[in-house]
């Protein structure tokens, strides 16, 4: 398996969603890297989900596709998408990829909420920074609270 050096690390350009086909060529939210090309997953558990919504947030130029089952959060995300105030998203972090394969972490969609201000120090970070030090953010910080994110999409299922 040939590896290339990108961002001071060795990556497989055939499968790394942050360096798909070449260094720095990231796949968009919800796409995976296969054979050096970004493409939609051919189905799988995420495509069949129901009883919630895929909410795509953008922070620092990076999009994150989240599976959310908390109806109040989904309604707040729709309000943010319309430009209405909803507060700061507070999202409990877990290790492991879910429906957005570009990230090695995901959020608990059942506990997602909005707060008037970030609940803990260090949780208002860019997704790329969380990815670079995922174990610290998942284990030590425990939440992601992106202030002023852009809601790219809300796809109710």
DSSP helical segment count: 3
Helix content: 10-25%
Order of helices and strands, N to C? EEEEEEHEEEHHEE
Mean pLDDT: 87
Oligomer: single chain
E-strand count? 11
* Rg over C-alpha atoms, rounded to the nearest angstrom: 16 Å
Whole-Å distance between the termini? 38 Å
Please specify the SSE layout and strand pairing.
Elements: E1 4-6, E2 9-11, E3 31-34, E4 37-40, E5 53-59, E6 62-68, H1 71-81, E7 88-95, E8 105-107, E9 113-115, H2 127-132, H3 134-141, E10 143-144, E11 150-156
Antiparallel strand pairs: 1-2, 3-4, 5-6, 5-11, 7-8, 7-9, 7-10
How would you describe the overall organization of this protein?
This protein is α+β, with helices and mostly antiparallel strands and 157 residues long. It has two domains: 37 residues, no CATH class; 99 residues, no CATH class. The protein contains three helices and eleven strands; from the N terminus they run ββββββαβββααββ. It is globular and about 45 Å long. The model has no long low-confidence stretch (mean pLDDT 87).
């Amino acid at each position: 398996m040939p590896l290339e050096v990108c961002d001071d690390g060795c990556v497989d350009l055939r499968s790394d969603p942050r360096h798909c086909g070449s260094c720095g060529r990231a796949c968009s939210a919800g796409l995976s890297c296969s054979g050096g090309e970004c493409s939609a997953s051919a189905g799988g558990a995420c495509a069949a989900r129901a009883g919630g919504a895929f909410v795509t947030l953008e922070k620092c130029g990076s999009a994150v596709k989240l599976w959310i089952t908390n109806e109040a959060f989904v309604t707040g995300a729709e309000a943010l998408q319309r430009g209405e105030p909803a507060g700061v998203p507070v999202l409990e972090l877990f290790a492991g990829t879910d429906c957005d394969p570009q990230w090695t972490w995901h959020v608990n969609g059942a506990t997602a909420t909005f707060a008037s201000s970030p609940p803990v120090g260090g949780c208002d970070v860019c997704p790329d920074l969380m990815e670079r030090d995922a174990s610290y953010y998942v284990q030590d910080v425990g939440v992601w609270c992106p202030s002023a994110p852009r809601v790219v999409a809300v796809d109710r299922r």
